[in-house]
Specification:
Blueprint lengths: L11 E2 L5 E3 L12 E2 L4 E6 L2 E6 L5 E5 L7 E4 L18 E9 L2 E11 L4 E10 L7 E2 L10 E7 L5 E9 L1 E9 L10 E4 L14 E9 L2 E8 L10 E7 L20 H7 L3 H4 L13 E6 L6 E9 L2 E5 L2 E2 L7 E6 L8 E9 L5 E10 L5 E2 L1 E11 L6 E9 L2 E12 L2 E4 L19 E3 L10 E8 L7 E4 L2 E4 L10 E8 L2 E6 L2 E8 L7 E4 L2 E13 L11 E2 L2 E15 L1 E10 L6 E10 L2 E8 L4 E8 L2 E8 L2 E5 L10 E18 L30 E7 L2 E4 L3 E3 L6 E18 L12 E8 L1 E9 L2 E6 L2 E7 L6 E22 L5
Parallel strand pairs: 1-46
Antiparallel strand pairs: 2-56, 3-29, 4-5, 5-6, 6-7, 8-9, 9-10, 10-11, 12-13, 13-14, 14-15, 16-17, 17-18, 19-24, 20-23, 20-25, 21-22, 21-24, 23-26, 27-28, 28-29, 29-30, 31-39, 32-35, 32-39, 33-34, 33-38, 35-36, 36-37, 39-57, 40-41, 41-57, 42-54, 42-57, 43-44, 43-57, 44-45, 45-46, 47-53, 48-52, ...
Length: 816
């Protein structure tokens, strides 16, 4: 049932007692969630998660909620003809992949044994009728495939694909089609290797750890690039998109990494006093025992030293020891500002032995309080649905100092792009909640009053031949090609008058229309596990239940409207992608909470003002605040339009841009794009006027137009800032001015974005607190006086050519 409100505005009050912009947010998630485990795979089955990998020795860890892994079971022993008699035992169970298909649980992993007796680096395949094992290898006389990091992906048509890494062009990702019995249905096809001159080759040619999902009709592969060793500190996660399972390639890669070390934000947001303390560039040799640097600037905050060292290095600043324990570590250490002198400063390094290495060193002038271990080398991803079935979660390894652990972070889809809310640690600021739990779980829906939009996840036990569901007058049964004797996992999404059903990941009912007024949900069969959670997931033309609104392939068409959907709740998340084809006008957004016409929280994008308006109305009196949507973001060139002479920086939608920040350190020495062939001792090229080396232009429709700019101060000696009259564009282009200049000059820049035609609004309500996000940036919190159930919805003044392209809503239940 929906309710339309045409008039909800009231006079604004000046007191902001109940509206808190950029407020402090509670942090719930604390990484790592499982210590001492590296390359691992995770599977969700019947309401539980199973994890195995490096240092699990043939065991699975088990969890109900992704955060607590308190149970451990032994499921496999490595004993086959091609490892017997070597040092390859259960300690060589690496990079597990766990799937369920055809009535069997499948365990694939890579043996990664580099011994003096033999090198054994292969993928093997074991099966079990139970997730608790024991798993037995299908063939003991030979391995399954070469070389490492296997993942089996089941497409919605039931076809299977194996993704793996071969040592061809460095570590390279390949894909191979399989039959339903896990035999191969064709040859392996190379997908991609790491791209030289990008963030993927900061040290070595490595592309590995592939993991593929399909969501909203698109295929997403997450993968790793760079060397995994923490002494490099460069291991990162990237994403590649494709239109089909075997079509991942360089052109589908995101230009940036989606998860990197938290040292990256430190470098971006702060001035390193060792390198830039004298407002000029001074390179540092980490091999030196004495490092001298000068500081001519005043400190604005508290100094912190980033210290990365291995093998025991004792570091002193101006004669005072900074790390008296001198343990191998990646740490951020607070420094007494009295130890830092204006003028000359000296750092001395005392190494315990020949293996002692200083890996990273910086002193930041920081305004935030932050100390402790740094997180780095995020990698070896697994992507799973959360406990409530609506959320996507990334499970991955990361280093806390030199120890590898398992982390989890939330995945969002913004403008169709996969975005990860991480890397997070106990020191991460902002709102990072734990995975939401289902509203109800058990073996039946007895006692549950179902809504008109919800998700059912049902696992039918083996030997349950009468598996079927009937919802809204539509009956769905087990297809004839699926075994009646096997267990099956059903995913059932009811969205008002629309039904979608998957069985064992196979799509068997595709957004079919049902009786919207019939809320009955009947389940037949022997249910092993069932979970229920209110919500809906809408995209393309798959919208239902929005009174009077129509959808096309671009999404829900929003004219002049205020429309609500769903039942009232006290904790929930609503995420909406707004696509404005006329981004110079329109006021539109969502209702974060609505009780009635006199009590609500409304979030509005004002295109003309390029700002976010937050209104909190209580008993007809409204408090209002405005937050500019302009922000500066790191921007990588799109390799589809980029080479040594020309760089193109693309936007996902029409974007208003008014300035650019250029690194003064040239691309060949930029750590994010360093040339692997460059002599390590080559003089770094620091350019006071990097902009003078290039011609700048912006894309106006299909025409490139020149940018006339002026240089202004950037506030950071490592960056040059140019400004120009605001342009509305989908791309910026930079070409070397001198035709004889063969240098890359730039790679990673920053663009100052005033407004974009596409914006993802997200509200996350937890009781009396509402967190408000725009394009994954938390811009406001609203504090409610009472924890009263409320509904959510959309609104628009009708002035813009506007669509809601992707909408996700679900009710949140806290961990239990």
């Amino acid at each position: 049932m929906t309710t339309t409100y045409a008039r909800l505005s009231r006079a604004s009050a000046s007191v902001l007692a109940s509206l808190c912009i950029t407020g402090l947010c509670a942090q719930n998630l604390s990484n790592p969630v499982l210590e001492g485990i590296a390359d691992a795979g995770v599977m969700k089955y019947a309401g539980k998660y199973y994890l195995g990998g490096v240092s699990t020795y043939g065991d699975f860890f088990v969890s109900d909620n992704l955060t607590e892994w308190n149970r451990r079971i032994h499921v496999f022993d490595l004993d086959n003809d091609w490892t017997r008699g070597t040092g390859a035992r259960n300690n060589q169970v690496h990079a597990d992949d766990i799937t369920y298909s055809g009535g069997l649980f499948h365990l694939l992993f890579s043996v990664n044994y580099w011994g003096d007796d033999r090198h054994i680096v292969h993928i093997t395949h074991a099966t079990s009728p139970s997730i608790s094992g024991p798993f037995e290898e299908v063939r003991k006389d030979q391995w399954f495939e070469n070389r490492i990091d296997p993942q089996v992906f089941c497409d919605e048509d039931g076809r299977l694909y194996l993704y793996m890494v071969k040592f061809t062009d460095g570590n390279t990702i390949w894909a191979r089609p399989m039959n339903s019995d896990f035999s191969f249905a064709g040859d392996a096809v190379q997908q991609f290797s790491s791209q030289p001159g990008t963030w993927e080759t900061m040290d070595n040619r490595v592309a590995e750890g592939p993991f593929v999902i399909k969501y909203r009709g698109r295929y997403y592969m997450m993968y790793n690039a760079n060397h995994t060793a923490p002494e490099y500190g460069n291991y990162r996660l990237g994403v590649c998109e494709a239109a089909s399972p075997m079509a991942f390639g360089p052109g589908g890669k995101y230009p940036w990494s989606v998860v990197g070390p938290d040292t990256e934000a430190l470098d971006d947001d702060n001035i390193d006093l060792i390198v830039y303390g004298a407002d000029t560039f001074r390179p540092v040799s980490l091999d030196a025992d004495t490092i001298r640097f000068r500081i001519d600037r005043d400190l604005n905050g508290r100094p912190y030293m980033k210290l990365a060292q291995r093998g025991g290095c004792e570091v002193a600043l101006n004669g005072h020891t900074v790390n008296p324990d001198s343990k191998s570590d990646y740490r951020l250490i607070p420094i007494d500002r009295r130890l830092i002198r204006k003028g000359e400063n000296v750092i001395t390094v005392r190494r315990k032995g020949n293996s002692s290495r200083l890996v990273g060193l910086a002193i930041y002038d920081m305004t935030d309080d932050r100390a402790g271990d740094l997180m780095l080398t995020p990698g070896q991803p697994s992507i799973v649905r959360g406990p409530n079935g609506w959320e996507w979660w990334l499970v991955y390894m990361a280093n806390k100092a030199w120890k590898r652990n398992q982390h989890i972070d939330r995945i969002h889809f913004t403008g169709g792009r996969l975005y990860v809310d991480g890397i997070t640690s106990p020191y991460s600021k902002g709102f990072h909640p734990v995975p939401a739990m289902p509203r109800h779980s058990g073996k039946s829906l007895d006692g549950v009053t179902v809504s008109d939009a919800y998700l059912l996840e049902v696992t039918f036990a083996a030997h349950s031949p009468a598996q079927s569901v009937s919802i809204g007058g539509k009956s769905v049964s087990l297809p004839p090609q699926m075994s009646r004797e096997a267990a099956h996992v059903w995913r059932i999404e009811r969205n008002h008058g629309m039904l979608t059903v998957w069985i064992d990941n196979v799509l068997v009912c595709d957004h079919e229309h049902i009786d919207k007024d019939n809320r009955a949900a009947d389940i037949s069969g022997n249910v092993e596990y069932l979970s229920y959670n209110e919500g809906y997931d809408e995209y393309a033309r798959h919208f239902s239940g929005w009174d009077g609104l129509k959808a096309d392939d671009g999404g829900l068409i929003l004219g002049r409207s205020d429309v609500m959907k769903g039942d009232a709740a006290t904790s929930y998340e609503l995420s909406v992608q707004f696509d404005n084809a006329t981004p110079d006008r329109g006021r539109y957004g969502l209702y974060a909470a609505l009780q009635d016409a006199d009590n609500y929280v409304r979030v509005t994008i004002d295109a003309a003002r390029r700002s976010l308006i937050t209104e909190h109305c209580v008993k007809g009196r409204t408090t209002t605040s405005e937050t500019p949507l302009s922000h500066t973001a790191v921007h990588y060139p799109d390799i589809k339009y980029t080479d040594s002479f020309e760089k193109q920086y693309r936007f996902d939608s029409d974007t208003y841009v008014s300035s650019i920040l250029l690194p003064r350190l040239d691309a060949d020495n930029d750590p994010y794009a360093r040339s692997l062939s460059l002599d390590e001792h080559a003089q770094r090229k620091f350019r006071d006027d990097m902009a003078s080396l290039m011609d700048f232009s912006w894309l106006d429709g299909d025409t490139w137009r020149k940018i006339e700019y002026k240089t202004v101060g950037s506030g950071h000696p490592g960056w040059q800032k140019i400004t120009f009259p605001t342009v509305r564009t989908r791309a910026l282009r930079m070409i070397n001015s001198n035709p004889h200049d063969n240098n890359r000059n730039i790679y990673r820049i920053k663009t100052c974005r005033d407004f974009a035609a596409t914006c993802q609004l997200r509200v996350d309500r937890r009781g009396k607190t509402i967190h408000i996000f725009a394009d994954n940036r938390e811009l406001a919190t609203v504090s409610l006086k009472k924890n009263v159930p409320a509904r959510t919805g959309l609104h628009s003044d009708g002035a813009a050519d506007l669509r809601a392209a992707n909408v996700l809503y679900y009710v949140v239940s806290e961990a239990r």
